[in-house]
Amino acid sequence: MLDKKVLLSVSNLKVRFDQHVILDNISFDVKDDETLAVIGPNGAGKSVLFKALLGLVPFEGEIKWQQGLKIGYVPQKLFIPKDLPLTTLEFLKLKERSEKEIYRALSQVGFRENKPHKGHLKEHVLKSKLGVLSGGEVQRVLIAFALLGHPDVLLFDEPTSGVDISAEETIYSLLHELQEKENLTIILISHELQIVFKYATNVICLNKEKVCFGPPKQVLDKESLEKLYGGDVSLYPHQH
Amino acid sequence: MTNLLFLIIVGVFVAAAAGYLGSFMVVKRMSLVGDALTHVALPGMAIALTLGISPVLGALIFLTLAIIAVWYLQEHSEVYPEALVGVIFTASLALGVLITPEPDLLEALFGNIERINITEGTIAIVISLLIVVVTRLISKKMILGIISEELAKSGGILISKLNLIYLLLVGVVVALGVKFVGTLLMGALVIVPAVSAKNIARSLKDYYLFSILFGILSAAVGVTVAATFHITPGPAVVLTGISIFIITYLVRNSAKAPC
Lengths: 240, 259
Fold this sequence. Notes:
The structure holds 2 protein chains of 2 kinds.
Chain A: E1 6-17, E2 20-31, E3 35-39, H1 46-53, E4 60-65, E5 71-74, H2 88-93, H3 99-108, H4 120-126, H5 135-147, E6 153-157, H6 165-182, E7 185-189, H7 193-199, E8 202-207, E9 209-214, H8 216-219, H9 222-229
Parallel strand pairs in A: 3-7, 3-8, 5-6, 6-7
Antiparallel strand pairs in A: 1-2, 1-4, 8-9
Helix pairs in contact in A: 3-5
Chain B: H1 4-27, H2 31-38, H3 41-51, H4 55-76, H5 82-99, H6 102-110, H7 118-147, H8 149-154, H9 159-200, H10 204-229, H11 233-256
């Protein structure tokens, strides 16, 4: 049994595809109401870690979730063909029948009825095909989708592209707000160290193995970042 | 000969079920695989005819075997073995043509609705209805699986089982339809209504409805035209479907033009 405060406990996690070891010797805990950021270079196994946590890929070692926990997952990207006749409302209805709940989730991610003008949400978002929404809108719809059914934990795989900076800024302030209002525990994959410093309780640095773990201000020093990314870390925005 | 109206009704039900199932096939990007798959019915019918049992049953058995094979390949190989599927199914068509007794060949390839009796027709109607009901039950999960396997799996949907159920339903509808349009053209009855529907649908609900409606129209108009002009119903049904496709294609393009 897990300690009541611990929602997720990972020990000695190892994932391999064929003979390639993608993740090795990963251990960490996530406590109630925390925000855990997962960082690391491309190919470090961040998304694979999420897939293992969700039980989508086979793994060795142990992943223990607190019993009865509801998990919402926001994938990095959806490959929705533009010609797929699926409206945003229909997409959300794949998970939730009640329109009231759908509107609640949408307002949580910043879609408000009659804003920026009357009928915008209904006519231009909900009735539109999902494939024609902008990157930022799709991202928010995906978060709303994950929020349907009132999850306790949100797994958020940050998009690397397709969302402009201003939209990204809102997404993080939204997540932060959600966490405070809804007692949501958030595990997010991030490419922005700025975001990590601003919002994360703990950070786990991955490069196949765990390079660091702890509160960002304590563990994210020049040395661990160099070890993580190799070479020039001045590229990263936290040094501004 | 069975009453023409009854034949049309049977055709309408089978085509409705085929159109509905086809709507998923098209967005799954499996149209060609689905089409090739239908050819497997031929050797099954041939063997059944030689043994003196119902060709529909023979078709169903062969289709089920082929479907399990396709499903297995889908689940167990990294790259979808589309070429391999094409080769195997074309081979089964060639084999089927060789072993089908000559007098029955034309019928097996292009269908013969006059051979459908009341019992068979009624069974076809009931099974078609069942197919529509089961498809409706799995439709939301199917769509979620098509958009994002991860999202579906993380929501506890068993994609692999779902795919098998879906493909088996396709097998059943193909077996029902071969008497109408034959093995060569059955793929069209599954695919064409959905492709036409996709041309004009703005929502999933419209897409399903149009797929079913275009299937129904193809069968009703096709069989009527065939009876009136004494031509083979199979091609008449499929050509009606193709005409609907052309119309919807033009509608789509004219709707796009002002943008």
